[in-house]
Design goal:
globular, mainly alpha, Muramoyl-pentapeptide Carboxypeptidase, domain 1, two-stranded antiparallel ribbon, 134 residues
Length: 134
C-alpha cells in the first residue's frame, strides 16, 4: 500500500465493502478472493484520504446521525457542484444546501431523494463507474 494513505475507505462502510466483494466473487467465480479484494482496494486508492481529516456528525433527523470526515463532505460537495446540483461553498458543512443538492442528485440517479449521504448514494456519486475488483 502507498505510504501516503491515511484511510483507503474514508466513507465506505463494512457492509458496502463486503457487498462489493460478494458481487465481484459471484460475477467472477474463477478468480481467487485475494485477487478480487486486491483489485477492489486498488480501485479505491484514487479516492483515499492521504492525511488525517476532522470528523463531523451529520444529523439525519429523527435522532439519527452519521459521522463523516470533513474531507469526505468536501468531496461530496465538489461532486455535487461538478454535476450542477450544488452552488454553495466547498466548506465541509452538510447544511440545507448540500442536503437539497444531494436530493437532486438522488432523483436524477433514480434513488430515493432523502438528501442523506447513504452508502448507495455515495457509491453512485463518488464512484460513478463503480469500484471493481475482478
Amino acid at each position: 500500500m502507498n505510504g501516503d494513505t491515511f484511510d483507503v475507505t474514508p466513507w465506505e462502510k463494512t457492509d458496502l465493502f463486503l457487498a462489493l466483494i460478494e458481487g465481484n466473487c459471484q460475477q467472477n467465480p474463477e478468480i481467487q478472493i485475494v485477487a478480487i479484494v486486491h483489485g477492489l482496494v486498488q480501485s479505491l486508492l484514487p479516492n483515499r484520504l492521504k492525511a488525517p481529516s476532522e470528523v463531523k456528525q451529520v444529523d439525519l433527523g429523527e435522532g439519527r446521525k452519521v459521522t463523516h470526515y470533513v474531507e469526505t463532505l468536501r468531496r461530496i460537495q465538489k461532486a455535487l457542484k461538478d454535476q450542477g446540483h450544488y452552488s454553495g461553498g466547498i466548506d465541509g458543512d452538510y447544511g440545507p444546501g448540500t442536503r437539497a443538492a444531494m436530493a437532486a442528485f438522488q432523483t436524477k440517479a433514480g434513488l430515493d431523494p432523502t438528501g442523506l449521504p447513504d452508502q448507495l448514494t455515495l457509491l453512485r456519486l463518488l464512484h460513478p463507474s463503480g469500484p471493481g475488483g475482478g
